[in-house]
């Protein structure tokens, strides 16, 4: 890994004034980018209509997994045969609203194409290259922001209600091992010893001891935003509507309401809202919001310690500062339609039986927009028509994991320094 020391420094133009970067979007990706840009000595302006860490951001309500060993794409060989079964189940893990299908279809076709084995191996390697440094890149930021307790390293547990769960998932395990991820296979007794909170319905499990978790992803974004403010970042509560082009690229952003803000360099980190803005800069990127849900149960009293994924029921159970979070679901229904909380309730219903003790206290429901590319990896690149704009979006199901690393890469790119990983797999023109 390239050391921070190698590229830290004050970035000044010939007149000696500090160079300026405008970050569009203050979710985990934008906020980590801002923090690393500040470390580099840039002046930073962050534009977002929402409050960092608030419920409007996808970064608020995720399952909290910070997993260096995450290298399994969503589209895996055989997915084609599972999709119809999932679609026919009204409470299943995947849902496409019929009226939305024509819109989502081109994306879904690309998603299926990405499931070819040769492609999966390459995507898996790209995911691992980005995710393996997640702890290294979060730790200095969390230390500076005074929130080191927001990274816990308890591992991650995938549980199965049959003996042959891991065997059925052999290809996924093989990918993880190829990428150097430690994988432990557990039997029913070992599951009980490791995580006594679970009901004795699980017969096999895969434990990934090197994975981590954030017990409050919204607070993490808020703390890192506070830190950025302390280091001199300026927040503008507004939505970017357009870019003004000059001979050398973007010269200003136009805000909704008409204000114009000059730009030297910009970072586009607007999560699920990024693709429309990228189109204005010459890149047509296949992009969908993969809407996901959670229920937060305040006093569930399960005593769950390790983030646990029910492989059969398709949800993640995460112990959080504010209670137990059950997260999951992928719904294709666009950015504008209101949430369908029946899907959140379906998660709750699926989750009850997996715990020995489960008290249904106060329940809060949430929906968020995952910024999804069809091949499960983000776009980290420069805009086609504006080399002074850096793309950092499309992190799909892994934006919390990849946020810190992406932030560091963005700062390297802005400084014109070599990037810590090869960015070829993340190019905007790969589709
Ligand atoms: C149920 C669920 C579970 C998940 N679990 C995990 C997990 O365990 N681990 C993991 O790594 N990931 C997980 N994810 C995915 C992760 O949450 C996302 O990948 C990540 O939050 C994306 O971050 P972001 O900064 O790109 O987007 P966001 O957090 O959505 O932030 C984008 C920001 O851009 C702003 N914006 C939009 N348009 C404009 C504009 N025109 N001008 C200015 N600002 C704009 C928005 O207001 C928003 O604040 C999960 C997601 C869901 C839904």
Explain this structure.
This protein is of the alpha/beta class and 431 residues long. The protein folds into two domains: 4-58 and 219-286 and 376-430, FAD/NAD(P)-binding domain; 71-122 and 151-213 and 287-372, D-Amino Acid Oxidase, Chain A, domain 2. The chain is built from twelve helices and 20 strands. It has helices at residues 28-39, 79-88, 101-113, 117-131, 134-145, 165-168, 170-178, 188-194, 217-230, 274-280, 342-351, 399-414, and strands spanning 20-24, 43-47, 65-66, 94-96, 156-160, 184-187, 204-208, 212-213, 234-236, 240-246, 249-255, 260-262, 265-268, 288-297, 307-310, 315-320, 323-332, 363-372, 379-382, 389-393. The strands form four sheets. Strands 4, 5, 6, 7, 14, 15, 16, 17 and 18 form a nine-stranded mixed beta sheet that branches. A six-stranded mixed beta sheet has the order 9-2-1-13-20-19, with helices on both faces. The protein has a three-stranded antiparallel beta sheet with strand order 10-11-12, with no helix packed on it. Strand 11 (249-255) and strand 12 (260-262) form a beta hairpin. Helix 1 (28-39) runs parallel beside helix 12 and helix 5 (134-145) crosses helix 12. The two termini are 28 Å apart. The relative contact order is 0.21. The model is unreliable at 1-10 (pLDDT under 50). Bound molecules: flavin-adenine dinucleotide (FAD). Residues 24-30, 47-50, 56-59, 62-65, 239-240, 269-273, 292-294, 327, 368, 370-371, 393, 395-401 line the site of flavin-adenine dinucleotide.
